[in-house]
Automatic annotation (TrEMBL):
GO terms for molecular function: glutamate-1-semialdehyde 2,1-aminomutase activity; pyridoxal phosphate binding; transaminase activity. One of its GO terms (cellular component) is cytoplasm. This is Glutamate-1-semialdehyde 2,1-aminomutase. Belongs to the class-III pyridoxal-phosphate-dependent aminotransferase family. HemL subfamily. Pfam families: Aminotran_3. It comes from the Archaea. It comes from Methanocaldococcus infernus (strain DSM 11812 / JCM 15783 / ME). Its cofactor is pyridoxal 5'-phosphate. The keyword Transit peptide does not apply.
Length: 421
């Protein structure tokens, strides 16, 4: 059991044995040796069909040949310059061409940095302090947004992290997702004090929660009426729901958006994009400070270009079809085996909740049977399928899942049998 040994060794040198809390699950995580297409291969010789896909970026599957070739070439040309490159312009052009709200782009290194800077920009631009975020939304691991946060914060029981002073989060107002009245009330009570509303258009960090029909349009209207900036955190949905992300899919254009994951084609990246008039407030053209040694890193940017180039119509059609087929199978199986569950899917995102109620917000999601989810997870793992080890994450399909959808559905049937034992 090499993974077990590696985990023991890792614990001696790495906090909790892992470098991000979501990677830990009981009794210990498998350690990866390599990955190709839709498969992860661990150090013990096991092969897993991967529906976690590094929490989103690997939409082309692992080790995509075209990305590798371009990145390899770039490696020989240097890996960080501290000076601008043409490739940054090319990727920025591609982003502006695709994402409806994007007129200007600032590249950073992660989704966390992107939301942190987008919020600073909104505050700097409006001269207001308060921000509104939704219960259970995850916008990365920085102080202003780690309040009632999803993802690992929720899975590991720390939606509000110690170490963040009250003073820092007192300007973060929380409202439930999909609730129009709650937001109206919050805005009314804090009139002229709110810089922005930040939202995951599809909540991908408490599972997969879809916006109610018209809800995102409502967000657009109410923010516009109150001179509040609307930020779509599209770190997951960007380039995934459609070429232009959730804003294209739902036809709602925010003022700013944050991007990451897919944009870096498997390498670290993030971006803040938005209307020129607002974005120009970033330094050096404006006064809102934003900087980074690795911003616009040539390797990440090269991988991003090579990835976005491959996301054609066929990609969206197929990845959606794979997720749809699995979601339909989950629905059919949960009915047939009388397992109380709700299943949600949109484009290449899907998740099952072991829950009686329709999951429309964080409070309801939290009522899910997480023990049953972990049983489902381990039963899948035993059969060579890896989904995120938490009820509060989302599953993804890649373009390389074509061959394994049927196998997945067959294994799911075995898992449902095991769940009812
Ligand atoms: N926003 C959203 C919607 C995310 O899903 C994530 C990461 N899961 C982040 C921000 C933070 O991104 P990163 O992990 O790259 O810092």
């Amino acid at each position: 059991m090499k993974s077990k040994e590696l985990f023991e060794r890792a614990k001696k040198y790495l906090v909790g044995g892992v470098n991000s809390p979501v990677r830990y699950f009981k009794p210990y995580p498998f350690f990866v040796e390599r990955a190709k297409d839709c498969y992860l291969y661990d150090v013990d010789g096991n092969k897993y069909i991967d529906y976690c896909l590094a929490y989103g970026p690997m939409v082309l599957g692992h080790a995509n040949e075209k990305v590798i070739k371009k990145v390899e070439k770039q490696l020989y040309l240097g890996t960080a310059y501290g000076c601008p490159t043409e490739k940054e312009i090319i990727l920025a052009e591609m982003v502006v061409d695709r994402v409806p709200c994007a007129e200007l782009v600032r590249f950073v290194n992660s989704g966390t940095e992107a939301t942190m800077s987008a919020i600073r920009l909104a505050r700097g631009y409006t001269g207001r302090k308060k921000i509104i975020k939704f219960d259970g939304a995850y916008h990365g691991a920085h102080d202003y947004v780690l309040v009632k946060s999803g993802s690992g914060a929720l899975t590991h029981g720390t939606p509000n992290s110690p170490g963040i002073p009250e003073e820092t989060t007192k300007n973060t107002i929380l409202v439930p997702f999909n609730d129009e009245e709650a937001l109206e009330k919050a805005i009314k009570e804090n009139r002229d004090e709110i810089a922005c509303v930040i939202v995951e258009p599809v909540m991908g960090n408490v599972g997969c929660i879809l916006p109610k029909e018209g809800y995102l349009k409502f967000l657009r209207e109410i923010t516009e009426e109150n001179n509040i900036l609307l930020i779509f955190d599209e770190v997951i949905t960007g380039f995934r729901l459609a070429r232009g992300g959730a804003q294209e899919y739902f036809n709602v254009v925010p003022d700013l958006a944050t991007l990451g994951k897919i944009l870096g084609g498997g390498f670290p990246i993030g971006a803040i994009v938005g209307k020129r008039e607002i974005m120009e407030h970033f330094s050096p053209s404006g006064k809102v400070y934003q900087a980074g040694t690795f911003n616009g890193n040539p390797v990440s940017v090269t991988a991003g270009i090579a990835t976005l180039e491959q996301l054609d119509e066929n990609f969206y059609k197929k990845t959606t079809k794979f997720a749809e087929e699995i979601a339909n199978a989950l629905k059919e199986l949960s009915e047939r085996y009388k397992v109380e569950a709700k299943i949600y899917q949109i484009a290449s995102m899907f998740q099952i909740y072991f829950n009686k109620e329709e999951v429309i917000n964080y409070d309801i999601a939290k009522k899910s049977d997480t023990e049953k989810y972990m049983k489902y997870f381990h039963e899948l793992l035993k059969r060579g399928i890896f989904v995120p080890p938490s009820q509060f994450e989302c599953c993804f399909t890649s373009i390389k899942h074509e061959e394994v959808v049927e196998e997945t559905i067959n294994k799911l049937e075995e898992v449902f049998k095991a769940l009812t034992l």
